[in-house]
Amino acid sequence: MKRSILATALLSVAAGAAAAQDGGIKVNAVGFLPQAHKLAVVPQAAKASRFEVVGADGKVVLDGALGAASRWEPAGETVRVADFSALTQAGTYRVRVGGLLSDPFTVAPDGYRTLGDAALKAFYFNRSAIALTPQYAGAWARPAGHPDDKVVVHASAASKARPEGTIIASPKGWYDAGDYNKYVVNSGIATYTLLAALEHFPDYFKRDIGIPESGNGVPDILDEAMWNLEWLLTMQDPNDGGVYHKLTNLRFDGIVMPHAASNTPRYVVAKSTAAALDFAATMAVASRVLAPFEGKWPGVSQRMLAAAQAAWRWAEAHPDVVFKNPKDVVTGEYGDAQLDDEFAWAAAELLISTGQAAYAQAFIRRDAPLSTPAWGNVAALGWMSLAQHRERLAPGIDRALVERRVDALAMQLAAAAEGGYRVPLAAKDIVWGSNAVVLNAGMMLLQAYRINSKPAYLQAAQSSLDYVLGRNATGYTFVTGFGARPVMHPHHRPSMADGVAAPVPGWLAGGPNPGQQDARDCPPYPSKLPALSYLDHDCSYAANEVAINWNAPLVYVTAALSALTPRTEANLQTATPSLPSLPSLLREEQLLQFDRFDKATAQAIGAHLILRAYRERKTVTIEITRGDTVLFTQAMPGASPDHADWIRRKNNLVKRTGHSSFYTHNEVRQAGGDHDALPGLDMRDYAAHGGAFPVVVRGEGVVGTVTVSGLPGPDDHALVVAALKDYLKVDQL
Description:
By secondary structure, the protein is of the alpha+beta class.
């Protein structure tokens, strides 16, 4: 998907405009649920005392006083906060202070659905041993990489039953991060977090996200987790229950696509106590999450529980096998010398899944401190599961103790979110993968909120999401494909090597990292201050890599906030403006017609649309067709990959009816019908939402479509009509 010279130039202008606004108002540039806590951060230099919220039409919908000035040392900034939580009406808005405008954001009842779906689908894009087809992967389709059906047992992993050089099969699984290796320790926390999200919020995950397994009667999040769980099972030595630490090349692959890197020998490397315990915990959770799906996967739940117990026994017999890379292996280590937290986590999960008192005793014996979880400190995951299952804990585990411990951590995190950027992130937390640190903090705040419903915990958890979506010192939306200033150059080999201008969508970048471990290989970082130590460059593995354990809490937090944020009847429905008359829409179609329509015409109209979208700061995807041929297409920076499917469905409706998709929308609504359930049409292939307009050539009829997606339907339609009026020089409609 190569950009035209015109589009590239316009994107450069937009990037420059974005950079010029650094130091401006910082806000979650994706959006909010109607009843969510809503904050923007305003620089003290603005020298103002009040703020306004303006709608898409520029009219003020809310104003208020800015909070007191507060210093945030990680960014070296003094800032004031605009609290616009009173804004609950669905729509698109900006915060304005004097001459400063924030990036646009939306308020919508399903405000995190697209983001959450993309964050989950990112795991599909990192699957090993499967071709990603255009049907599911769109522009990011690729051949299968690393079948891992002939993996070598490394000398460090050799045993009597499996000597060095033994060939085993270990297919499936997710590539861990920006590289193509697979690591049990990091897979553990990532897979657990997805399983916990499903276990805690099953209703949220009933909608398919568009992966090969969609529609099979199983939540897509579980299908996705199974791709990795099946690989994890192959990493256990069936002869003794021990678990290999990783499956890897001897050194990292170059910047190539997975299939181009698949000829290098791959190895399973050394067993470790951490791998065995992370495996045991994850399999114990999986066994209970899979139990209701016995018909789909007969016997797998019990197999996983048995595998978990075998790994536990191995760890008890080998309690201090700390992994170190062998001399000939230089890929990621995930070494961890502190193992009490792994023992505590595994004991908690096995206790919940078996009810056996021995696991309760093992958990109490370890008594690992509770803190924000990370791959090397997983004790909190055990407490999180105990809190979820606190109504039926086995004797020996005090429910009140679980609730006190979880609340104590949440209290600390909420206190950290009281000043500056109002985020549960201290300077010491801004480390490698700092964006996952703040989201994992949000995840733990949500556990406490589920116990005691303290609003401060929900608000601080909301701030953790706001931070990665733009309310941070850099102003970036740290998720590829989202917001006005998304990450565009992640350290992620498929995104770097696939020839597609936009990165694979839905990935959370690691975030600011004052360690700057890649400084010798990259352009200079813009600052040494912790919160500003970020570089959107694909060379930056220290600040801009992606990783499965960083995306997992993004999936969890979006689901949890969607499920737990209070709702009222008033904001469950999106505001519906008065419907335009059908004769006025027909008049548009009659006046906006062409004498001829070819590729040059399409490109000129596309240029009109791009310029208008940039001028109005609208993040959209544009497609212009004649027949089945796409003559022009462009996704604006930050446009969702889901736009392509909306365009396909709206175009299908225009081809079927001969009218604009907005005409059909209004025709159905004014007749009292449901525009999302048109009789005789499969709504997976048709969408009666505004944005697709018929291209009519006089003497020929409808020959194609001009389509925009990314805004509310009426706004998509209005943007197309305005561009066509400009091009055709039609003054009145």
